[in-house]
Specification:
This protein is mainly alpha-helical. Helices cover 49% and strands 7% of the residues. It is globular, with a radius of gyration of 16 Å.
Length: 176
């Protein structure tokens, strides 16, 4: 398997997420409630009983790059929120955190998701408020794309990567 440079892997990741976004948008999202008309905008992102998003090292790098486009004051708020979430919900890099839920530190009131678009984590792209269970995108579609992200990570970092809760990555993130 050919090794990828970090920049080449980030380009492939952005392309993969753009394709996944298009698949979800064209095939499923029209059946979901529109986030902009939701009476409780962002509730699905900040509902600590619902959110459980894990990302990989490569995705964390993509998120870091996107966050660097924002003012330092906002990045600092995100890191502070992430640290509070990690502490409050007992999240850590090691161990089984897939059963733990938390509120997303990337949701900014009045703005929405700070990493919307080709940086947004796959589970967030996959999710929307569907009234009818049959309208949901198949879970296997998400799993298939997560396997592609895993392969990109392996080609880029070898075995030096893992899935971690989003707030864990954010808490430890270093900005330029």
């Amino acid at each position: 398997m050919k090794t990828l440079t970090r920049s080449a892997a980030l380009e492939k990741l952005a392309s993969l997420k753009k394709r996944f976004n298009r698949i979800i948008g064209e095939g499923y999202e029209h059946k979901a409630k529109d986030c902009l008309t939701c009476e409780q905008q962002g509730i699905c992102c900040i509902d600590a009983h619902f959110v459980n998003v894990h990302i990989t090292r490569l995705e964390a790098e993509s998120v870091r790059q996107r966050l660097e486009e924002y003012p330092e004051s906002l990045r600092k708020k995100v890191k502070e929120r992430a640290a509070k979430v990690v502490q409050k919900y007992g999240l850590e890099a090691a161990g089984d955190s897939f059963s733990r839920t938390y509120s997303c530190p990337l949701f900014e009131q009045g703005t929405g998701c700070l990493v919307h678009g080709d940086t947004k984590p796959l589970p967030c792209i996959h999710h929307a408020c569907y009234e009818i269970p049959e309208d949901l995108p198949p879970h296997e579609l998400l799993k298939e794309h997560e396997r592609m992200v895993e392969r990109l990570n392996t080609r880029t970092f070898g075995n030096g990567w893992n899935w971690q809760p989003l707030p864990v990555w954010l808490k430890d993130m270093k900005f330029k």
